[in-house]
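Below is how a single chain appears once it has passed through the pipeline. First comes the sequence as given, then the structure the pipeline wrote out for it. We keep one example in the README because the format questions we get most often are answered faster by looking than by reading.
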Amino acid sequence: MSVPDSSAGAAPKPQPPVAGRGPATLRDIAAAVGVSQSAVSMALADHPRIGRETKEAVRAAARKLGYVANSAGRALQAGRSKSIAMVVPNTAQHVFGHPYFMHLLVGVTSVANAQDSSLMISTNPATDHDPAAYDRILRSQAAGGAIIASAAINDPNVSRMVDNGLPVVLIGRFPHLPQAVSVGMDDVAGAAAATRHLIVDHGLRRIGHISGPLEHQTALDRYQGFRDAIAESGEPCVQALAVGDFSEESGRACAGQLLDGTPGLQAVFAANDEMAYGALLELRARGLRVPQDVALIGYDDFGVSRLTTPAITTVRVPAEDLGRMAAERLFGLIEGTSAAVTHETVPIELVIRESCGTHPQP
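Resulting structure:
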């Protein structure tokens, strides 16, 4: 983002509001003035990086559009509020029972503690896009900003939060919200690396994938990476898909589907380690050895993959780093110091263990 300074020419004149719309948002002001949402946020906060003419244009557009800034965000900037929120649109049982969220929380709280800020956690009483977790934060006005984790791509509440004016950082990839600030990892590349390892390093050609629920971008990206590696292979490959829900039980059921539907199945790549563990149990129940009869790879590396026999090859997800990055970006948005709206990624790492077998000798 190029931030206008006081030497820049006159900023564009604000455009009239669109009739029939709800409360004005930062995006509306940005579109009217012709600058980014982060520049609007900094202009409204009187940040010195923004030129005088741009500040005046932003303020004029805000007045004309009837924009009302979030009071909690203003309070945090003024030092009166020291709270941020983490919104996870799932049940508390799921959130606090899954190691991914525990690692995220470690990263988020490490930054919040350094800022002397408290952290609010908002979950849903049920699934199916229940707005409760979001509305709780918006109604309370007690948080200066929010981190949203594990939201489905078709959850309409995510864009509602982004457009509300409250500083928001998303964890994951949201291609339909290019204006939003987000942090994540390249799951397409991670899944492709895992699948390529089976094909190239082990010479396997009949491979099944156990995906997560395909309304989540993470599951879609990992399935895409699996297909990309199959497509780029110089040898013909047989691929199969079974859709799970990231649970151990679904991994076991999906492994059964793959074995029944793909004669001669040589390998299973699961979209997380819990489903990989479920697959391991099903393979054993059928008298199949891992990796001698069927190779196995998971995704996450949160603990279970290191405790099984054999230990499971997996793609490491640095969830603590993601939580830390998300919190740092959120405080930057609140304080008006974040630069361009971007999607940041952390590096991928394939962790090779015993479950996929030894490398063939040249």
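The domain at 1-69 is CATH 1.10.260 (434 Repressor (Amino-terminal Domain)).

See the next section for the split statistics.
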